[in-house]
Design goal:
The protein has helices at residues 4-17, 24-36, 47-54, 62-80, 97-118, 127-141, 150-174, 178-181. By secondary structure, the chain is mostly helical. Helix 2 runs parallel beside helix 7 (150-174) and helix 5 (97-118) crosses helix 6 (127-141).
Length: 189
């Protein structure tokens, strides 16, 4: 399996080659948002709303469809893993901090969009999920330039980790894995 930066690069190259202007980060964010908002893992109709967003409603070519299906499968596997294995599809740590920061903002924007497609009613959500979504709305609005220093690196890392953990929280609370749908014994939290 590709490392996250290799995945980001390979998906980005295919998107560029096919004139798709949306980033790999935003697309994985949308996928996580749909799954975290309650879309079942085995759902097969997620590609159409994604195509509406990333390709102005035009069908996606085979190369793009294949790479998005692969990204979807990898993301699903990470979300259901018991070791909190979700890896955000973002540029390599060697990329300039502002490039990584912008990719994270795109990722969060995509998550909010995907989440909204599958979860309109937050009344049954825990306070933690509601707070996380409010924080995501704030994160998505950030656009300050960051300086290339250790303090900014640490701050970006902390926000990335917060996003990752919040996504898993949303998925664990609202997501639907096949096992959950078959009535696996519930654990008390």
């Amino acid at each position: 399996m590709d490392t996250t930066s290799q995945l980001y690069e390979s998906v980005s190259v295919i998107l560029e080659r096919n004139n798709i202007l949306t980033s790999a980060a935003e697309i994985q964010g949308m996928i996580c948002g749909m799954l975290g908002g309650g879309m079942p893992l085995e759902c097969q109709d997620w590609l159409e709303p994604l195509a509406d967003f990333v390709n102005q409603g035009e069908p996606l070519g085979k190369e793009v469809t294949d790479v998005l299906l692969s990204l979807f499968d990898t993301t699903c596997q990470q979300l259901v893993a018991s070791d909190f294995a979700l890896v955000l599809c973002l540029p390599d740590d060697a990329a300039p901090i502002n490039e990584r920061g912008q990719a994270l903002l795109s990722w969060v924007h995509g998550f909010m969009l995907g989440f909204g497609l599958h979860q309109a009613d937050l009344t049954g959500c825990s306070d933690d999920v509601k707070e996380g979504l409010e924080d995501f709305a704030e994160i998505a609005r950030m656009d300050d330039e960051m300086s290339e220093d250790e303090e900014s690196e640490q701050a970006l890392f902390e926000v990335m980790e917060y996003v990752r953990v919040t996504v898993m929280l949303c998925f664990n609370e609202l997501g639907k894995s096949p096992e959950q749908q078959q009535g696996e014994p519930k654990t008390v939290h």
